[in-house]
Design a protein that fits this description.
This protein has 356 residues and is of the alpha/beta class. It contains eleven helices and eleven strands. The N terminus is likely disordered.
Length: 356
């Protein structure tokens, strides 16, 4: 490899946090929400880049059933940190109402709002809203088109399969224009489609080889429509990628803690009504508890983040509070991230880009 002629194509590496707000038997729902708010306060003060909110419904798997309400609370509680949906589950929203909520947020936190969009994956949640699971893809495509139109155009109308919107003008208009809209992508097909359409993307819990394949697919599709290499580097550097992160005194300790927490999460996702609390913390057969994880000592986590950075990805969403992870462990991981990992990750990134 040779030194790049233009080092400014590489975005500054950033680490944000991801909030699902799970609610195991202890703590209570109220305590889980208070803990989530304390995470926000710490992230704002400690130099984390952003907070990304995961929308889920009707179970202890995740409490953020009203993501715009929670995002508004974060907007008023903070002054610096970016606020993102990861993701807004489009089939569960009337797109006009969701567009209004997003537009309001751009006024409450100017320049800090990003909106990830997804189709959802839980039949339980879709059915709880009266949405047939087999309709989710079609609702997602149509809902996204309405959102794009309302947020991006001065006047808009729509007549579709699920929604009809007469000629309307969104008020208030988005402050500073349409906020960034990102598409959550998991398959090769969705990555290629988003790349061809010029849509920004979000990537989830993929292993480094899977991330490499995703980036290759994105780069190939964008290159095919004439996007130049320097611009592609900038785009890839701005793709947020989710990583589970748990830091311990040893790799074995951290992995054991993370594996048990993921076990609770996986079993809760399979029994959303919560009617079998004895299911335990062992992950179900065939479940890779640490896929997409940076788990171990601070040095191990830095090395894992380096593997991600070497792919050109420079926006990490750190998922530190997952499953039934004890809150003191969540806080310890966040403190070590802020004190040791974020500065080292940025230093490692600066060294690696000199010869990338």
């Amino acid at each position: 490899m040779v030194p790049r002629e233009k080092k400014d194509v590489w975005p500054e590496p950033r680490i944000g946090i991801f909030q699902l707000v799970p609610a195991p038997e202890r703590p209570t729902d109220n305590e889980a929400i208070e803990q989530a708010l304390r995470e926000i306060d710490f992230a704002e003060a400690a130099g984390f880049d952003s907070v990304w909110i995961a929308e889920h419904h009707l179970s202890s798997f995740g409490l953020v059933g009203a993501p715009s309400v929670y995002a508004a609370a974060i907007a008023q509680r903070t002054r610096r940190i970016g606020i993102g949906y990861a993701v807004a589950v489009v089939p569960l929203h009337h797109p006009v109402r969701l567009a209004e909520e997003i537009s309001w947020l751009t006024h409450l936190a100017p320049g800090r709002i990003s909106v990830g969009l997804g189709s959802g994956f839980s039949p339980f949640e879709l059915e709880g809203y009266g949405v047939a699971p087999e309709e989710r893809r079609a609702r997602f495509i149509e809902g996204c088109a309405v959102l794009e139109g309302l947020l991006g155009e001065d006047a808009f109308e729509h007549r579709g399969r699920f929604w009809t919107v007469p000629p309307v003008r969104l008020r208030p208009r988005p402050f500073g224009g349409k906020p960034p809209l990102l598409r959550a992508c998991s398959s090769r097909e969705s990555i290629g489609d988003a790349a061809r359409r010029g849509q920004r993307i979000l990537l989830g819990l993929k292993t480094p080889p899977e991330l490499a394949a995703a980036i290759d697919r994105y780069r190939s599709a964008r290159s095919a429509i004439g996007v130049l290499p320097d611009e592609l580097d900038r785009e890839i550097g701005d793709i947020p990628v989710l990583r589970r992160i748990t830091i311990g005194e040893s790799d074995d300790e951290a992995r054991d803690i993370a594996r048990r927490a993921v076990g609770w999460e996986a079993n809760t996702a399979r029994r959303p009504s919560g009617d079998d609390p004895a299911a335990g913390n062992e992950p179900p057969d065939g479940h890779d508890a640490l896929a997409g994880g940076c788990v171990g000592t601070a040095a191990t986590v830095i090395a894992e983040l380096r593997r991600v950075s070497e792919l050109g990805l420079r926006r990490i969403i750190a998922w530190v509070n997952f499953g039934d992870m004890p809150y003191d462990r969540v806080r310890t991981t966040m403190e070590i991230l802020a004190r040791d990992v974020i500065p080292a990750f940025r230093a490692e990134d600066r060294r690696s880009t000199a010869v990338a």
